[in-house]
């Protein structure tokens, strides 16, 4: 028994799993396999590797922006049951992602979502006053930089492609990937 077993949400999840199994939509083993894979492999390093590749390979970058799922699959991240849309920051545009309804987010590429991503304050304020929210995260944008807010759903989820920092020309893929933070992939940091 884990410390979470007595939480109401744990009971709800168990009932949901039972319904899926009863309806023949998934077997117990399939659910277990999916969850173990998710826990073992879901990590923001995955998204960071895609970003580093896009920074160094213009053709990968255009494939990433036109078909996120295919570009993720190229690097071995091919098991997403939603449409992945990658939105690129530039000197004149900053993107930030949110799920106003709940907490949708590309978990397999970004790892478990931070607590604040699921908070009512982040979900409601990011659409109303994105610049103020970004400033609280330490992202201050020039007045001539537009902000695009992307509202995720269970079908379409977003990842931000940050701008490659200046002075990183000599870095290799692994070093570049280490520069990319989870907040950078959400848009609440510049990289
Ligand atoms: Fe959601």
Give average pLDDT, whole number. 93
What is the domain tally?
Answer: 2
Distance between the termini: 40 Å
CATH superfamily of the largest domain: Nitrile hydratase alpha /Thiocyanate hydrolase gamma
Named at the architecture level, the CATH assignment of the largest domain is: Alpha-Beta Complex
Class from secondary-structure proportions: alpha/beta
What's the SSE pattern? HHHHHEEHHHEEHH
CATH topology-level fold name of the largest domain: Nitrile Hydratase, Chain A
Just give the CATH class of the largest domain.
Alpha Beta
Give me the number of helical elements. Answer: 10
Give the neighbour order of strands across the main sheet. 1-4
Tell me the radius of gyration.
18 Å
Strand content: 5-15%
Point out poorly predicted stretches: none
- Total beta strand runs: 4
Backbone shape: globular
User: Which cofactor or ligand species appear?
Assistant: fe (iii) ion
